[in-house]
Write a structure and sequence with these properties.
With 108 residues, the protein is mainly α. It is built from six helices and no strands.
Length: 108
């Protein structure tokens, strides 16, 4: 799976956090359809959405916009080895494996 577009990265973060589009949309006060369009690269989100998304989910703006650096901003209030961080990493890798399996099935 490539992470070349902003839409790809929005979807990766959502799956990494184990959230569906409905939850993200509610938190950001947008429609599911709007979020879906962002993830599919049909529409480009405005700066207010990007700012709110970054703040709400502690996302590194450089990674979100350009794919550069770490996905998340380090949270100084928690240990980097906390259970929550380990669960986030596990969810992310499981989602990535699932996507790779789906892509492999579609190619064969």
């Amino acid at each position: 799976m490539t992470t070349e577009t902003l839409g790809d990265r929005l979807r990766i973060i959502r799956k990494f956090l184990g959230l569906n589009q409905e939850v993200i949309s509610q938190k950001l006060q947008i429609t599911n359809q709007t979020l879906s369009r962002y993830e599919k690269n049909v529409r480009f989100p405005d700066s207010l959405f990007l700012r709110r998304f970054g703040i709400l989910f502690n996302v590194n703006a450089n990674w979100l916009l350009y794919g550069i650096g770490d996905m998340f901003i380090e949270d100084t209030d928690r240990s980097p080895d906390s259970k929550q961080d380990k669960l986030k990493k596990l969810r992310y890798f499981l989602a990535k494996i699932e996507e790779l399996l789906i892509e492999t099935k579609e190619e064969s």
